[in-house]
Design brief:
The chain has 14 helices and 13 strands. With about 350 residues, it is α/β, with parallel strands linked by helices. It has a nine-stranded mixed sheet, with helices on both faces. The chain has a two-stranded antiparallel sheet with strand order 1-2. The longest helix is centred in the middle third of the chain and has 22 residues, at about 210-235.
Length: about 350
């Protein structure tokens, strides 16, 4: 529903809200009054009234029968049938999926794979939409995207043209681009938002126990903003996360950083583990469902390859660039002009009487 359909809203307020990424009544109803107060031209009293009125219109001011709730989640294939199976079809839209694990466990590889499969038709496991890629570690690779695209039988240039990348340099920059993602979902028909990784910059900027509270507040805002965007626009959100090593008695174990804010804020939490004593021992990886609202704890095996997440180490490329590129037209050789002169018959000779030569 358009903002103009809200009876209590003014034209100037509509313009201000749209400039800040709130383009419809649903998005307004899920907003926080404090965030609207930050918009110059909207007072605290007005922000609360607008949000409450929007909730009334959306039917969010009363309880509903569960039988009336419609779940319209779509699922995005990971590139691995084993992995898709434990996720009940793939990465869900409308909710946040966090993937955490040690370095080289396959987190960024999965992010790149999803950036390609998202553009596939819905009946083939995709979402038929564009991708917003928020890159905090400078690990995005065009060449990897090209290989994954060729593996799934797509023209690499078309796939690259539908991925919108933002290189992030600070926590504030990260939050700014998360805010900008909502409008980009509308303008570019984006169905997937990737944040790779969630905690990298915060880990370097908020150092020490004295900065923990401030860091968690910023993190909480990011998580809630992404969750709202995911639900409002029914997009999938993938968050990759780093780990820290914790001692448990005489043993050590890796766990995701970000504390309870991330643990409670993400709907799906998946841990990636390597096989063997070293990340280079094998390309096989395991995905473990740590937490999910409607899935049991399960484990699936997959492989990281040069062309994304797969069920096998061997990769077959369905797109052949050489066949797809039309051969250059060969120039036909120019005919050489004959040196012999053609006999020229005069007009008078043509008209002369043939009996004269006898």
């Amino acid at each position: 529903m358009e903002l103009a359909e809200l009876s209590s809203i003014k034209p100037r307020q509509i313009k201000l809200l749209q400039e800040n990424g709130i383009t419809d009544i649903k998005a307004l109803s899920m907003s926080v009054p404090g965030d609207l107060e930050e918009i110059e031209g909207i007072s605290g009293k007005a922000s609360k009234k607008l949000i409450w009125d929007a909730r009334d219109v959306m039917g969010m001011s009363s309880f509903k029968q569960v039988s009336e709730i419609v779940e319209n989640y779509d699922f995005l294939t990971t590139g691995s049938k084993n992995f898709d199976e434990i996720l009940n079809g793939g990465v869900s839209t409308g909710r946040l999926t966090e993937v955490f694990g040690a370095f080289k466990s396959g987190k960024t590889n999965l992010a790149h794979t999803l950036a390609v499969t998202c553009q596939m038709p819905i009946n083939e496991g995709g979402l038929d939409g564009a991708v917003l890629y928020i890159d905090t570690e400078n690990t995005f690779s065009k060449s990897k995207i090209e290989r994954i695209a060729r593996r799934f039988g797509f023209n690499p240039q078309k796939i690259l043209g539908n991925i919108y990348h933002a290189r992030i340099y600070s926590t504030d920059h990260q939050f700014q681009m998360i805010r900008a993602a909502e409008q980009a979902c509308i303008d570019k028909n984006a169905r997937l938002i990737v944040v790779d990784s969630l905690m990298a910059l915060m880990r370097s900027e908020y150092v020490g126990i004295g900065m923990l509270a401030a860091r968690q507040q910023v993190l909480n805002k990011m998580i809630h903003e992404l969750s709202r965007i995911a639900e409002t626009h029914n997009v999938a959100v993938l968050l990759t996360n780093q780990v820290a090593t914790f001692m448990k008695g005489t043993y050590s174990a890796n766990d995701a950083i970000g504390g309870n804010i991330v643990a409670h804020g993400c709907h799906f939490r998946i841990q990636f583990k390597t096989k063997g004593f070293s990340a280079n021992t094998s390309l096989e990886r395991s995905a473990i469902i740590v937490d999910a609202p409607d899935l049991p704890p399960e484990v699936a095996s997959f492989f990281i390859t040069e062309a994304g997440i797969s069920d096998s180490e061997k990769v077959e490329y369905l797109f052949d660039e050489e066949k797809a590129t039309p051969p250059a037209k060969k120039k036909s050789p120019k005919k050489k002009k004959s040196s012999k002169k053609k006999a020229v018959v005069s007009k008078s000779a043509e008209l002369s009487d043939p009996l004269e030569s006898l």
